[in-house]
Design a protein that fits this description.
The chain is built from 3 helices and 5 strands; from the N terminus they run βαααββββ. The protein is of the alpha+beta class. The strands form 2 sheets. It has a 3-stranded antiparallel sheet with strand order 1-5-2. A two-stranded antiparallel sheet has the order 3-4. The mean pLDDT is about 90.
Length: about 120
């Protein structure tokens, strides 16, 4: 059984979020939560919320044991970029790109499949 959770338009750059998602892919769900809790990256908080939501969806959907869940798939897609301008020297405007991410996590209770 699979359960998924997705957070869209998260204000963290996809490149930084992918570093965090790579840490948890293929781990048991409880171990992945511990890794995220103690990782210093700023993106670990939104990724941890998505993982917690996926675990809650698995509990609600089939009443599965939390200890049996694994992070099967996790990925980060790029969302829309917010374009802002900052003043620079000699009257110029400098564009600042504020990137957003779509974070998806899939947890499953089967022991085969995935990379663990």
């Amino acid at each position: 059984m699979e359960a998924r959770a997705k957070a869209r338009y998260v204000r963290v750059t996809p490149r930084k979020a992918r570093r965090v998602v790579d840490l948890i892919r293929g781990l048991p769900a409880e171990e992945a939560q511990a890794v995220l809790q103690f990782s210093p990256q700023g993106a670990s908080d939104p990724v941890g919320k998505v993982l917690a939501s996926a675990i809650a969806n698995a509990d609600h959907g089939g009443g599965r044991d939390r200890g049996m869940l694994w992070v099967r798939r996790a990925w980060v897609d790029e969302g829309p970029t917010l374009k802002r301008f900052r003043p620079r020297a000699q009257g110029r405007g400098y564009r600042i790109n504020k990137r957003t991410s779509h974070i998806t996590v899939i947890v499953s209770d089967d022991s085969e499949g995935g990379n663990h």
